[in-house]
Amino acid sequence: MKTVEIKLSQNPYKVLVGEGIFENLSNEISKKKLTQKRFFIIDKNVNLHYAGRIRAAFTELTSGNSIVLEAKESKKSFESLFKIYSKLLKENYGRDSLIIAIGGGIIGDVAGFAAATYMRGIKLIHVPTTLLSSVDSSVGGKTGVNFGDTKNIVGAFYQPELVLIDTSFFKTLSKGEVISGIGEVIKYGFLSDTKFYNYLKKNLHKLQNLDDIVLEKVIMECVKIKGSVVISDEKESGIRKVLNLGHTFAHAIEVDQNYKIKHGHAVIAGISCAMYLSCKLNFITENALNEYFEIINALSSEIKIAEYNFNKLYALMRRDKKNRESKIKFVLIGGVGEIVLDAEANKSDVEYAVKCGLKIFTKR
After folding, report:
1. Is the pTM above the cut of 0.85?
2. pLDDT digits (tens, 9 = 90+) for 65-115
3. Domain containing 327: what range?
4. Which residue in 128, 197, 218, 290 is a FRET match for 64, CA 20 to 30 A apart?
């Protein structure tokens, strides 16, 4: 088991990474003296595969102290929060309670927001069970739900007490879900340096096949990168915006596609659009664009986007939380490890980037 420390000035915590370490969670809870009354929020698909394992690790688990949620974007809603709050109140959970979220990013986002808001804040532990949530959403404290047709528009920054990443949960992930996780990994490849970026390119196939050595190295590197960014800018007032590379496009694509595309797939498509816009605005050369596209092309056959409406996409991008003064603020690239924040572009340039960026993913 390996450890990454997220050394925030307030609420520091550890991220534990390893295979078969879930059974250590009770001990870790005891070490941190988190003796609070526990409430479990579990991904429906995880429960299908691992209910016996979870109950063996937590013998006190019952229908009264747990809730199982379907991991769909439509479930990142006030309706799901209502169910959680109702059960917490019914079972007399107080401010000394602990929520343990076991599942992917959707479950973590909903559980995190519930923990942040129930009685103005109760303790929280994340057990991410997907590659995507392990390298991204479980670390950093972002929580939230969707409202109307806007993704993550209602939320809070709320740090967990602990994150435990057990890679043995990944064995039941579909190929599409693994590719989704790789979408966020690619983002970190561009945020990091040429050493990590080249390692990703060289080992992309092994990562797709969940090679143990590659998987652990990639998760550790991504968590370290995100941790360092979050430590520098916990509330996304500055440098943390780099974590949104490709996401202005990606969130709009998800909504336009009625969430029929996985988040990480949308991120890959969004990074593709961001690279074309970066080239259009002369932040990178065409040669660099072609070079960077090698990693996108290696995954493009696994991602399909139905016919889209650019005007709808553009309207959705105008609602992005990073925007200021009614202007879309893009996160673009000037090279590996060189991120451009708060870039602006006219509508025609954005349309060009979307057309070129989505061309290789569009269904024929």
Report:
1. yes
2. 999 999 999 999 999 999 999 999 999 999 999 999 999 999 999 999 999
3. 183-207+229-358
4. 128
